[in-house]
Write a structure and sequence with these properties.
The protein has 119 residues and is mostly beta strands. Helices cover 0% and strands 50% of the residues. It contains no helices and 11 strands. The protein starts with a strand and ends with a strand.
């Protein structure tokens, strides 16, 4: 079973930036970031395939950048111009086949890292 460990969350003021990281115990075809705010459903943020194709949720609008280091089995998410509505638990996910921002594509999840944005 693949293990995913996230890091990099924290508390920042609106307009700030954060870089989230996820380390996987082994490589997977598709890696992604999801988030879940209190009282809301989990939503996909971004994903990247083994071939380097990137998929973003519509709300990202250029503020989020997903990247990976294949040699290190790491996945990053750069979040710029943070907004209070970005406050959520951010989860790393891994999948073996289809890539995208829908959670049905993923079968392995990390424990999450909290991002809190104050106005």
């Amino acid at each position: 079973q693949v293990q995913l460990v996230e890091s990099g969350g924290g508390s920042v003021q609106a307009g700030g930036s954060l870089r989230l990281s996820c380390t996987a115990s082994e490589s997977q075809y598709c890696m992604a970031w999801f988030r879940q705010a209190p009282g809301k459903e989990r939503e996909g943020v971004a994903s990247i395939s083994g071939g380097g194709s990137r998929y973003y949720a519509d709300f990202v609008r250029g503020r989020f950048i997903i990247s990976k280091d294949t040699a290190k089995n790491t996945l990053d998410l750069q979040i710029n111009n943070l907004r209070p509505e970005d406050t959520a638990m951010y989860y790393c996910a891994a999948g073996l086949r289809t890539c995208g921002v829908y959670d049905r594509y993923f079968n392995t999840w990390g424990q999450g890292t909290q991002v809190t944005v104050s106005s």
